Each structure stands twice: as structure tokens, then as C-alpha cells.
Fold this protein.
Amino acid sequence: MSGQDPEFVKGAFAKIADRYVMTNHVLSLGTDILWRRKVGRLLQGWSPRRVLDVATGTGDLALEIQRRCPEARVLGTDFCPEMLNHAAKSGVQETQVADAMKLPFEEGSFEVVTVAFGLRNMENWQAALREMARVLVPGGHLLVLDFSQPSGLLRRPYELYLNKILPKIAGFLTGEGEAYQYLAGSIGEFPFGDEMLALFEKADLLENRCETLSGGIASIYTGVKG
């Protein structure tokens, strides 16, 4: 299963790191905060001791997990140092520069691995899922939060916003419209729903589930390592 050019992605995120959080909140009208809170509640129910947040970026999800699971050790990794600098400054307990395609951890190192809006930007989606599953303990959870595509009446207005309006607003806010033009295009290419669940299954994950959010604009996928 194909993915993205890692060097282009790293460069794009390095350019927008300083305004990434603010821009996301504006573009999603704050909905991304609610999505992360839902993920935090899920993890709270799992009561993990060791959590790896892959492609943590500026650390938004890692911070939510820390708030919901204060007893857990939360490690945020990313291959973009500029993003990790913001995560550390924001209060993420532990950060480490690491490529999601080659995680520097032994098998069975974590009870939960999360990735929010990061899998879509990786070089090979299937291989990335396998690598994240590798570092889970048996019975551990993999959780992916990412954009999907709504159906019905919301589909066309969403596509208009995503492809025409969003890059212009983001370009104005960050001065890097090209990066957000890429992000908009990447959503259209990214598997969602049953296609994503099939990738989970190929990564030897069990009990795979999909929960759509905000009419299908985003989805939470979960699986358990057998």
C-alpha cells in the first residue's frame, strides 16, 4: 500500500511547525480538540502504563493522554525535530526523534500505540501499521485517528472546503499554502472505513473497529495485537 514522500513531508511540516496548532484549530473550527478528547477517554478506559504516540507532531494528543492517564508513561515520537521542539515546550513528558517506519523499540514495549493525523503522511501505510503493531504487547491496542471522507449531502461541501478554501486560509495563516495543498490532496488518497480496517487485518490486528466522527470527516480506528 503506497504512501507519501518522507523528505517532502518532513520539509513541509518543518515549515509550518510554528503555527501548526493554531492553524489546525482554526481550520477545524476547534473540532479536532473534541476528537482528541474522545481518544483520551478511550485510553482512560484501557488504563495503559506505557503509551507511544507516533508522529506526535506538536504533542496535542500526547498532552490529552497525559491528562486522562496520569499514571501512564507517555512517549511522543516524530521524525521532524521542529515539531518535537513544540511538543516538549508544551509539556509532553518524553519526546524522541524517531522514524515511524523503523521504531527504535523492542517488541512488546507498549500497551498502547496511537497516531493522530500522522499515518496518512507516512511512506507506506501498511508497513507503518505493522511496525506500530510490532512494538505492542500481546493484547495491546493500536489506535489511529485520521481524516476520512463523509458521504451523503456533506460530501460535496466538504470537498469544496478541503480542496479550495482550506489551502487559501492556511496559506494566509502560515505563509505556506503549498504544504496545506498537499495535506488536502493526501486526504483524498487515504484509505478509510473498510479499506483501513482491511489494512489493520493485514497487520495481524484483531477486534478491528471504526468509529466515524463529525459525519465522517474523521474516524477512529482501533485494533488489538493477538
Remarks:
- DSSP finds nine helices and seven strands in the chain.
- The radius of gyration is 16 Å.
- The beta strands are 50-54, 73-78, 94-97, 110-116, 136-147, 205-213, 218-225.
